[in-house]
Amino acid sequence: MHTHTKIICTIGPVTKSKEMLLKLIDAGMNVARINFSHGNHKEHLITINNIKEARKEAKKPIAILLDTKGPEIRVGKLINDCIKLEAKQRIKLIDGEPKNESEVPINPYEVTSVLKPSQRILFDDGYIIGKVLEKTPDGIVVEIENEGLLKSSKGVNIPNVTLPLPAVTEQDIKDLIFGCEHDVDIVAASFIRSADHVLEIKKILADQNKSDIIVISKIESSEGVDNFDEIAEASDGIMVARGDLGVEVDLSLVPKLQKAMIAKCYETSKPVVVATQMLESMINNPRPTRAEVSDVANAIYDSASCVMLSAETAAGKYPIETVLQMKRIIHQAEQDFDYKDFFYKETYMESEDVSSAVAVAAVRTAYSARAKAIFAITRTGFTTRLLTR
Question: Is 74 among the catalytic positions?
Answer without folding.
Answer: yes
